[in-house]
Amino acid sequence: MSLLLTSELIRALKGNHYSMNSIDHSTILAPVVLFVYNRLDHVTQTIKYLQENRLANVSDLYIYSDGASSERDQLSVEEVRAYLKTVEGFSSVVIVEQTENFGLAKSIISGVTEIVNRFGKIIVLEDDLITSPYFLDFMNDALLTYESQSRVMHVSGYMYPIRHKSLPSSFFLRPTSCWGWATWKGSWEVFKKNSDYYLEVFDRKMIKQFNLNGSYDYFEQILANKSGAINSWAIYWYASCFLNDGLSLHPRESFVRNIGMDGSGVHCNDTNLFYVDLATENVKNFGTVIEENKEATKQLVSYFRGIRSYSISGALNKIKNKLKMVF
Predict the structure, then answer these.
(1) How do residues 125-155 score in pLDDT, each as one tens digit?
(2) Which residue, of 80, 225, 238, 261, has the fewest CB within 10 Å?
(3) Cβ burial, residue 308 (10 Å; 0-12/13-18/19+)
(4) Which domain does 233 fall in, by range?
(5) Could you tell me if 144 and 5 are in contact, meaning their C-beta atoms sit under 8 angstroms apart?
(6) DSSP string across 219-236
(7) What CA–CA distance (Å, rounded) separates 240 from 189?
């Protein structure tokens, strides 16, 4: 167990004679919430890596299983649910089987709201994310460290493959990340999924800042939701944090890897542009200055511009190949 969590446990035990094993860990550790659908191969990997976390056996796991959207998906959903009933290795496992298809956005919004309102904090995963053995250490340490800092609204377990050797072991950015994250009840209360609201509130200058100086078109996702082209939740969480001057804590070394970038997930294309190695140790110290790390933002902007050029080049190559086939 990490030094931060050990210190917290000792403080909780101060003044009584209970043993470390008798303390109610649920009052200190955040519940882990996993959202799943019909990808058995992915979810088994997600669970396997999560079980190998050092805090797994003292963490409560809540699994939200979405209902099938079609008869074609019914069998695979049932296979996933049968597997979930065998999951062990956690302090407790609670499975919520939806009787209808919510879709990813509604599933996450409703599930996160329910759990974070009940426990005050939450750690969130989806069924295509694998984690470092130190993922739960980092997330819980961060939640404990910054719980009284209202400007810190989000903790990210994932970090993009930027050039980060000169960066501290953790730092603050404005954008959130939905690939393994955590938050508190007070922060989640400002969440608003309303395209019209953001289209009215954001001006041109704010959009440029929101898009990291034009390096990544986050705001386009709000427009796509408005038009009905997509139905997502994460862009609204970033927008909610942004409008409340919130910051997102990120690790230098990623504690999460997305294995769903194979075309099987919602809004996920087949690509390795986001591949990262998993962290092999926990973050030992967190910064005391609550402000955006300009160097980290600069590196992220550079990374986004690089993958945008790569994507454009890739698209052109595909067009050229198709033209060769035609002519």
Answers:
(1) 999 999 999 999 999 999 999 999 999 999 9
(2) 261
(3) middle
(4) 3-321
(5) yes
(6) HHHHHHHHHTS---SHHH
(7) 10
